[in-house]
Protein: U-box domain-containing protein
Organism: Helicotheca tamesis
Amino acid sequence: DAISDGDYVREVLQPGDGVVGLRGFKRAVFKKAVLIAVGVVSADTISNNSWEGRGNGTIPPELICPLSQVLMKDDPVVAADGHTYERTAIEYWFKMQQVDLSAAEEELQRDPNSQQAIVIWNRGILSPVTQRKMKNLDLIPNIAIRTMAQDMH
């Protein structure tokens, strides 16, 4: 099974063109394996926060982080795209996007005509949900979501 194969996960995490990101991952299990592999969340966190099979299984999807796929009971925040994420997951997303931008900037200094670097530089930091450019990287605590998620836990 490729999902549990650490070598496969490491292979698909190799640097690419920086355009697809997590958006291309369709299966929640694969997302979780990738998030564990890159250190965004631990296997214990996913196990402890998993909403599958809890109670009657009717946890609203709005309480699940779109990046980490865990119940947002610890530190949910609203980003500039209007979506709520677990702070650690969205901060890691921003960090990876900033790494791509830095690499593009270095490439443009070496080769001002690098089309790939121009695309990455022009796109800026994207929302993981909408894939649109983020206006800023401000994060605002979402106390209502945290309270609801803690009540569900």
Notes: The helical segments are 6-12, 28-37, 43-49, 87-110, 115-123, 143-152. Residues 2-152 form a domain with the Herpes Virus-1 fold (CATH 3.30.40.10).
